[in-house]
Protein backbone atom coordinates (compact mmCIF):
# COMPACT_ATOMS: atom_id res chain seq x y z
CA UNK A 1 0.00 0.00 0.00
CA UNK A 2 2.77 2.43 0.94
CA UNK A 3 4.68 1.72 -2.30
CA UNK A 4 1.54 2.44 -4.35
CA UNK A 5 1.11 5.80 -2.60
CA UNK A 6 4.76 6.72 -3.10
CA UNK A 7 4.66 5.66 -6.76
CA UNK A 8 1.54 7.75 -7.33
CA UNK A 9 3.14 10.75 -5.67
CA UNK A 10 6.29 10.40 -7.77
CA UNK A 11 4.24 10.18 -10.97
CA UNK A 12 2.25 13.24 -9.92
CA UNK A 13 5.42 15.21 -9.21
CA UNK A 14 7.04 14.19 -12.52
CA UNK A 15 4.09 14.75 -14.82
CA UNK A 16 2.13 17.28 -12.80
CA UNK A 17 -1.50 18.18 -12.81
CA UNK A 18 -1.68 19.95 -16.12
CA UNK A 19 -4.84 18.35 -17.44
CA UNK A 20 -5.69 18.64 -21.11
CA UNK A 21 -5.90 21.99 -22.85
CA UNK A 22 -9.61 22.90 -22.85
CA UNK A 23 -11.43 22.82 -26.17
CA UNK A 24 -13.53 25.89 -25.32
CA UNK A 25 -10.71 28.44 -25.47
CA UNK A 26 -10.83 31.35 -27.87
CA UNK A 27 -13.35 33.99 -28.88
CA UNK A 28 -16.76 33.06 -30.20
CA UNK A 29 -19.20 35.80 -31.21
CA UNK A 30 -17.11 38.40 -29.40
CA UNK A 31 -17.03 36.46 -26.13
CA UNK A 32 -14.53 34.41 -24.20
CA UNK A 33 -15.98 31.21 -22.73
CA UNK A 34 -18.07 31.69 -19.60
CA UNK A 35 -16.62 30.57 -16.29
CA UNK A 36 -17.71 27.14 -15.08
CA UNK A 37 -19.80 26.85 -11.93
CA UNK A 38 -16.67 26.64 -9.75
CA UNK A 39 -14.79 29.35 -7.84
CA UNK A 40 -11.56 28.86 -9.81
CA UNK A 41 -12.21 31.26 -12.68
CA UNK A 42 -12.56 35.01 -13.21
CA UNK A 43 -13.75 36.83 -16.31
CA UNK A 44 -14.41 40.41 -17.29
CA UNK A 45 -17.31 39.12 -19.39
CA UNK A 46 -19.05 37.46 -16.44
CA UNK A 47 -22.19 39.18 -15.17
CA UNK A 48 -21.28 42.08 -12.87
CA UNK A 49 -23.65 40.67 -10.23
CA UNK A 50 -21.56 37.47 -10.11
CA UNK A 51 -18.95 38.77 -7.65
CA UNK A 52 -17.19 35.41 -7.48
CA UNK A 53 -16.39 35.37 -11.18
CA UNK A 54 -16.54 38.98 -12.37
CA UNK A 55 -13.39 41.05 -12.65
CA UNK A 56 -12.99 44.45 -14.28
CA UNK A 57 -11.60 44.49 -17.83
CA UNK A 58 -8.05 45.70 -18.36
CA UNK A 59 -6.77 48.86 -20.02
CA UNK A 60 -4.36 48.35 -22.89
CA UNK A 61 -3.90 46.07 -25.85
CA UNK A 62 -2.69 42.57 -26.66
CA UNK A 63 0.95 43.68 -26.89
CA UNK A 64 0.75 45.21 -23.39
CA UNK A 65 -0.79 41.99 -22.06
CA UNK A 66 1.92 39.89 -23.74
CA UNK A 67 4.67 41.99 -22.15
CA UNK A 68 3.08 41.61 -18.72
CA UNK A 69 2.60 37.85 -19.12
CA UNK A 70 6.15 37.20 -20.32
CA UNK A 71 7.55 39.14 -17.36
CA UNK A 72 5.85 36.71 -14.95
CA UNK A 73 7.31 33.40 -13.77
CA UNK A 74 6.07 30.08 -15.12
CA UNK A 75 4.19 31.64 -18.04
CA UNK A 76 4.09 30.61 -21.67
CA UNK A 77 2.26 32.32 -24.50
CA UNK A 78 0.48 29.69 -26.57
CA UNK A 79 -1.42 31.82 -29.10
CA UNK A 80 -1.18 35.49 -29.96
CA UNK A 81 -2.67 37.60 -32.72
CA UNK A 82 -3.82 41.22 -33.00
CA UNK A 83 -6.93 40.77 -30.83
CA UNK A 84 -6.40 37.53 -28.85
CA UNK A 85 -3.80 36.05 -26.52
CA UNK A 86 -3.80 32.71 -24.74
CA UNK A 87 -1.17 31.98 -22.10
CA UNK A 88 -0.59 29.11 -19.71
CA UNK A 89 0.70 29.55 -16.17
CA UNK A 90 2.13 26.50 -14.41
CA UNK A 91 2.43 26.32 -10.63
CA UNK A 92 5.93 25.63 -9.36
CA UNK A 93 5.34 22.62 -7.14
CA UNK A 94 2.32 20.61 -8.26
CA UNK A 95 2.53 21.78 -11.91
CA UNK A 96 -1.14 22.83 -12.06
CA UNK A 97 -1.89 24.70 -15.29
CA UNK A 98 -4.18 27.73 -15.55
CA UNK A 99 -5.32 29.21 -18.85
CA UNK A 100 -5.38 32.99 -19.19
CA UNK A 101 -7.01 34.61 -22.21
CA UNK A 102 -7.20 38.18 -23.39
CA UNK A 103 -9.56 39.54 -26.05
CA UNK A 104 -9.26 43.08 -27.37
CA UNK A 105 -12.74 44.27 -28.30
CA UNK A 106 -11.82 47.07 -30.71
CA UNK A 107 -15.40 48.34 -30.96
CA UNK A 108 -15.59 48.92 -27.21
CA UNK A 109 -11.86 49.65 -26.86
CA UNK A 110 -11.78 47.11 -24.02
CA UNK A 111 -9.30 44.36 -23.14
CA UNK A 112 -11.32 41.48 -21.73
CA UNK A 113 -9.63 38.81 -19.65
CA UNK A 114 -10.48 35.31 -18.46
CA UNK A 115 -8.28 33.27 -16.12
CA UNK A 116 -9.29 29.72 -15.17
CA UNK A 117 -7.83 26.64 -13.52
CA UNK A 118 -7.99 23.48 -15.60
CA UNK A 119 -8.39 21.16 -12.64
CA UNK A 120 -9.91 21.25 -9.20
CA UNK A 121 -12.67 23.21 -7.59
CA UNK A 122 -11.18 26.14 -5.71
CA UNK A 123 -8.02 28.04 -6.52
CA UNK A 124 -7.83 30.06 -3.28
CA UNK A 125 -8.04 33.27 -5.33
CA UNK A 126 -4.97 32.56 -7.47
CA UNK A 127 -6.63 33.50 -10.78
CA UNK A 128 -8.02 36.77 -9.43
CA UNK A 129 -4.64 37.69 -7.91
CA UNK A 130 -2.89 36.87 -11.19
CA UNK A 131 -5.18 39.15 -13.20
CA UNK A 132 -4.68 41.95 -10.69
CA UNK A 133 -0.91 41.49 -10.95
CA UNK A 134 -1.19 41.69 -14.75
CA UNK A 135 -3.32 44.84 -14.37
CA UNK A 136 -0.60 46.39 -12.19
CA UNK A 137 2.17 45.41 -14.61
CA UNK A 138 0.23 46.87 -17.53
CA UNK A 139 -0.28 50.17 -15.74
CA UNK A 140 3.47 50.78 -15.38
Task: Please give a quick description of this structure.
26% of the residues lie in helices and 26% in strands. The chain is built from 3 helices and 7 strands, in the order H-E-E-E-H-E-E-E-E-H. The strands form 2 sheets. It has a 5-stranded antiparallel sheet, covered by helices on one side.
Shape: globular
| Total number of distinct structural domains | 1
Beta content comes to 25-35%
- Sketch the major β-sheet: 5 strands, antiparallel
Report the C-alpha radius of gyration, rounded: 16 Å
Instruction: Report strand order across the widest sheet.
Output: 3-7-6-5-4
End-to-end C-alpha gap: 53 Å
Q: Helix coverage percent of residues?
A: 25-40%
Regions with little confidence, pLDDT below 50 for 5+ residues: 4-15
- Which structural category do the helix and sheet elements fall into? alpha+beta
The CATH class is identified as Alpha Beta
- Mean pLDDT score: 90
Description of the structure:
This protein is α+β, with helices and mostly antiparallel strands. It has one domain: TATA-Binding Protein (2-Layer Sandwich), CATH 3.30.310. 26% of the residues lie in helices and 26% in strands. The protein has helices spanning 2-15, 62-70, 126-138, and strands at 27-28, 31-32, 41-43, 75-80, 84-90, 97-105, 110-117. The protein has a five-stranded antiparallel β-sheet with strand order 3-7-6-5-4, covered by helices on one side. The chain has a two-stranded antiparallel ribbon with strand order 1-2. Helix 2 (62-70) packs across helix 3. The protein is globular and about 40 Å long. The termini are far apart.
Amino acid sequence: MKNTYVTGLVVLMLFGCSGSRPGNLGVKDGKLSPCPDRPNCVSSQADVSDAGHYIDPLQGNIEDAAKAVTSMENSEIITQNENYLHAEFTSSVMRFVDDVEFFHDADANTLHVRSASRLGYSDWGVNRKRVEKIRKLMSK
